[in-house]
Amino acid sequence: MAAAMSFLPNLRNLFFPPASSQAKDRGSKRGASWFWMAVGVLYFVLPLVATFDFSLRARKGVLSFLAYERVFKDPAFWKTFIFSLEMAFFTILVSLLLVVPTAYWIRLRLPKLRVIVEFISMLPFVIPAIVLVFGFIRVFSGAPFFLTNTSFGTNVLLVAGYTVLALPYMFRAVDTGLAAIDVRSLTEAAQSLGAGWGTILFKIIFPNLRVAILSGAFLTLATVIGEFTIASFLVGINAFGPYMSLIGQNKTYESSSLAIISFMLTWAFMGLLQFLNRGQASSSLAGAH
Amino acid sequence: MAFLTLTDISKYFGGVAAVERFNLDVEKGEFVSFLGPSGCGKTTTLRMIAGFELPSSGTILLDSEDVTYKAPNQRNVGMVFQSYALFPNLTVGQNIGFGLQVRKENEAVIKARVDEMLGLIHLEQHQNKYPYQLSGGQQQRVALARALAIQPRVLLLDEPLSALDAKIRVELRLEIRRIQQALGITTVYVTHDQEEALSLSDRVVVMSQGRMEQVGTPFEIYNYPRTQFVAQFVGQLNLLPITGLDLAAETCLLAGQTVQFEHHQSRQLSEAPRLAIRPEEFRLGALEGCNVLSGRVETVMFLGAVVRLRVEVGGLLFSADLFNERNITPPRVGEQIEISFPVHACWLT
Q1: Which of A48, A126, A205, A263 has the fewest CB atoms within 10 Å, i.e. the most exposed one?
Q2: CB contact under 8 A, A195 and B73
Q3: ipTM over 0.90
Q4: Bridge partners (DSSP) listed for residue B188
């Protein structure tokens, strides 16, 4: 009994620590948070700093941007980069035209199908790109579709492949955007005012998904720019992904500079997204009563 | 000929009846409310008028035109939603002008109409603001202006005040009625709030479980409810068990005390009839020509304009609302009192 009584204050301290010990706990928790944050930052930043440092050592004994100069002066860099940008543009366009009306219609009329479509949209994470591209080559190399015979045909296949790869990002982004607005009421309000489906989609739904669409588009762009497997089988060295891989195999410093450039590009896109996003979040939420 | 006619409208969702054999004629310029609890079919009926739901059977005539299966964007019907449903990407002015732009009206006409509507809802200063910059009440006024800007044949309002706080709700209620009367627009209003329905409407349709219980003016609905559901749903009602019923003499025993009532032959009685009395029909003291009961005060609630008593009479508990008068002290808990109510104020259900 006495042992139990002496145990009680400890128990009380455990659940209701005295004010001084609470303050101490808060301090140590804050310290631990900062420690783990620092570990996280170092984990992400150190390799980048090391890569950047290495990319500056192309000229012996001095730090210089020589590797960057070489990359930017290489016509193949611009050619492959612009080609991949073009492919990304068409991929985003096709993805949007495919995903936005589908996700919208599912939210509006077929909510039970959402789980199935969500599952389908996740398949690219499970099925390797190599399987997809082999399937493409097998199906579209013979009659009735001779798409692999022309560069236009392979570009079409490339966009189709990228659209599949981008599906999880685009669907997720658009679906989240749709969840933040009252799709049904907005649609019905527009209908009662005389709007048809085209007007509803392009004047109401698309503009209110601006941020979601931009997120999906930038993620798609980032995926397409660095994609290697599908591009190397369909268009080879013409795309930026295989070009980066080739440089990585042959030119040490340039490959590091390319890695930094691609990081900078991604960050620039993210920054642009944040910039375009300003003020939009609050308006989206306010519209989502 | 009525302006809006619903004939034998039914709607089934997977075999479950949401609305059954709904018949209603609405005159031009009339304000009709659908009143009922959640799930009674009032919103479904409104959505069928708007075209968002198709009836399983029946017809809807609007200005002599059969619109039963017409698409919502072909009906020229204005709709105001509980959630406002303003387009977040458009300003107040653009929201109001949206319907006119869809109709490809010229810019001058749109601008004039938008200005007119902004004047009507007293939000001239907010034309260039976005919906998220407005309060709930302001947003709903914009939604109302947007629905009216297209000069709809019928204005439909689906619980437009439910998301607002009490004070704004009362203000906007008056505003809606003022605008409706100023424009003379035929209006159908859905609400579960009896005060809203009674104060706004020319006629009220009380609904329960997909069926119309009663249609009538607010006065008729409140004072002459035809069914027990209407009597209980609209206003407060004491339903007290009785014995010794004598229909010929129009008397019965209530907790052993004789009570006289008025019985209408048209009124159908349930198997175990009960006496219905509204709490506000009671007066303190024994009044001549009235039924008088003796009882004990169980609780006293002071509500400002009204003092609500719970009185126990022979084991029966009922509510009595007395007007608060400064020179009369309300009874105290435990006090024995006599309480009266007129013969015409009670009926059998």
Answers
A1: A126
A2: yes
A3: no
A4: B32, B156
Chain B residues with CB within 8 Å of chain A CB: 50-52, 71-79, 81, 83-89, 98-99, 102-103, 130-132, 143, 146-147, 150, 156, 163
Contact map slice: A 195-214 vs B, CB within 8 A = 195-196, 199, 204, 207-208, 210
3-class state of residue A129 by DSSP: helix
Q: Hey, what are A118's tokens? A: 């969500």
CA-based radius of gyration for chain B: 24
Q: Confirm if A209 and A170 have CB atoms less than 8 A apart.
A: no
pLDDT (mean) for A130-150: 85
DSSP A251-284: -HHHHHHHHHHHHHHHHHHHHHHHHHHTTHHHHH
User: Residue B163: phi, psi to the nearest 5?
Assistant: -90, 5
Query: What CA–CA distance (Å, rounded) separates A76 from A256?
Result: 17
Contact between chains at B72 and A188 (C-beta distance less than 8 A): yes
Amino acid at B294: S
Cβ-count burial A77-111 (b if 16+ within 10 Å, e if not)? beebbebbeebbebbbebbbeebbebbbebbbeee
Q: Among B77, B88, B98, whose Cβ lies nearest the Cβ of A286?
A: B88
Distance of CA B206 to the CA centre of its chain: 7
Q: CA–CA separation, A207 vs A210, rounded Å?
A: 5
Within 8 A by CB and 6+ apart from A286, the residues are: B88, B131, B132
Q: Token digits for B23?
A: 């018949």
For residues A170 and A164, what is the distance between their CA atoms, to the nearest angstrom?
10
Name which of A8-22, A43-57, B38-52, B148-162 the model is least confident about. Answer: A8-22
**Residue A172 confidence class, pLDDT cut points 50, 70, 90:** very high
Measure CA B68 to chain center. Answer: 25
Rounded to two decimals, the pTM is 0.78
